[in-house]
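step: validate -> pass
step: tokenize input -> pass
step: predict -> running
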Amino acid sequence: MNKAVAFAPGHISGFFQPLIDKTNVDKTGSRGAGVCISHGATSTVCLETDNEQHLDIIVNGKTGDFTVTQKAIKILLGDSRFNVTVDVQLDLPVGQGFGMSAASALSSSLALTKILGKPQKIAVQAAHQAEVEHHTGLGDVVASAMGGFEIREKPGIPPFGKIHKIDESSPLILALFPGSISTHDVLTDTNKIDIISSIGKECTDSAIKNPMVNTIFYYSYYFTKKTDLASDQLRLILKKINEKDQASMCMLGHSLFAKGKLRRIKKQIPSSVTIIETDVDNIGARILNSS
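step: predict -> pass
step: emit ->
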């Protein structure tokens, strides 16, 4: 049996401009900006030669379809006959804007390509294609592969995508509010996409002129206010935090990310809300071990 373990950081989008290329999924993605965090997905992949192809995916101890990760793995396997087991541990919930679907697909793909002796770019390509096809994200995979704060100037994966990476070591606060937002529903709603696209372009164009972490937070909050995607509760808390610190909504989730005086930020968040302290992951997706 061959085995490999890989990690992919979660990714938070602060603002984005969806850009779809119907002729090439590698060119499809988003312009925008965000940050990779130390909470992510760790995937253990085991592979054995078999008479037919068989795939089992377990996420946080539960077996299921997990369509994005499944699609990415099947792209890499093609018609080859292997018995593959994928065991994924997610540090954060899916559907809260932390890029867990992308991190799961990318870490699993990266571990499998290690076993198969294929380059990392093939894993990125497979995970990106799976995310785009299932409407669960547009820029998370390419950002997670790189790490750090980033501004995505051009959509898609290399060599088409263009990203400005900003290394930053500041700790961050995450706040998870009850409920979630369906990325799929937003990305398939043409009216919402038109509004998001216009504001996302404005934010990205402005951020590129001054590529700094503070700029990313400024335009993330601007994007949140202009798109009207935040709940009333989240909007009110963000307003309070931004009086002295920096915070914005995680796109797309009922959650926020913040930077500044952590103790002061926590005081603005209700006790009923889950608070998580995390760090910026500047490394990006990587192999942890293999055998």
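step: describe -> The CA atoms of residues 58 and 87 lie 5 Å apart.
step: cleanup -> pass
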